[in-house]
């Protein structure tokens, strides 16, 4: 987490916030590992293996969480690294007179994009200057505040694996305790609603509908109060999962929120990739007033055709090459080689439309 390295570029304040997010996320992951391995499966409380006598199931459970949860932590940390180094390769600005294939440009003269914040360096097509990281990124999708880094094509595989491991790890962690937890939650809710103090403090107060995440938060916080009330009846000699426990409920609530968020983001990102869009493209599609983009057809000396450029129409996806090619462009390493710059291929249907427009003018 190279947070404080750069003082001259990026947004230092955002980075401090992101640093605390990273500490928080890693703490939740580490704590989940402790609860599942030590308190649920084995060791001090021995709930599943010794207390419940389920040694085979307990052993399998232990193996699964020991594999999944650290894996999630490693993938997460790897995404937070290299925010300074993972940069646009410093290719010199190509001479537009020497280009042979159609390419995206910034104006009708066929000029290539440059970045004013990076001393006028070439910004290859589909690159974006991330103001939080302070660098240009090739194949930029979005800046993710949860990992405090940009998500680009080269990181997409790792990013998606993190988003998919999180709900899997959470669901697996929950398997042995689900019944007990559901029972405890029902009991806690009941105790909370029947308690005079909880009614006065929370249920009868109008603010309970607003101040803790709206109507859903009203029930979650109310349930938390129930766990607090039940604490007075708890026996300390029983293991964690045997009786209603606010600690277990809280860590599961965090797990559920993270998993839900991760799964939704994964599906949303995959849908964009299939349509040949980066997250940024998909967001920009919703703003019709964004600056125009152009495609330039280079001069062709063999056919005596001069250079022409034309605007990309709203809704035209120039990098959409069909679902499977779009996916392969992200996941196939051959497309992510660092040996030299590979110009992105353009949608042949859009190119046809453009050439017809140019010829009819
Ligand atoms: Zn830049
Ligand atoms: Zn960034």
UniProtKB/TrEMBL annotation:
UniProt key word rRNA-binding: no
Membrane protein topology class? Multi-pass membrane protein
Q: Which GO terms describe its molecular function?
A: protein-cysteine S-palmitoyltransferase activity
Its Enzyme Commission number(s) read 2.3.1.225
- InterPro entries the UniProt entry points to: Palmitoyltrfase_DHHC, PFA4/ZDH16/20/ERF2-like
Keywords of the record: Acyltransferase, Lipoprotein, Membrane, Palmitate, Transferase, Transmembrane, Transmembrane helix
What reaction(s) does this enzyme catalyze? Answer: L-cysteinyl-[protein] + hexadecanoyl-CoA = S-hexadecanoyl-L-cysteinyl-[protein] + CoA
Has the keyword Membrane been applied to this entry? Answer: yes
Residues forming the Palmitoyltransferase DHHC domain are 113-284
**Where is this protein found?**
Membrane
Task: Quote the Pfam families the UniProt record gives.
Answer: DHHC
Question: Where does the protein principally reside?
Answer: membrane
GO terms under cellular component: membrane
**Segments traversing the membrane:** 16-36, 56-79, 159-181, 206-227, 248-271
Family stated for the protein in its record: Belongs to the DHHC palmitoyltransferase family.
Tell me the domain comment: The DHHC domain is required for palmitoyltransferase activity.
Q: What is this protein called?
A: Palmitoyltransferase
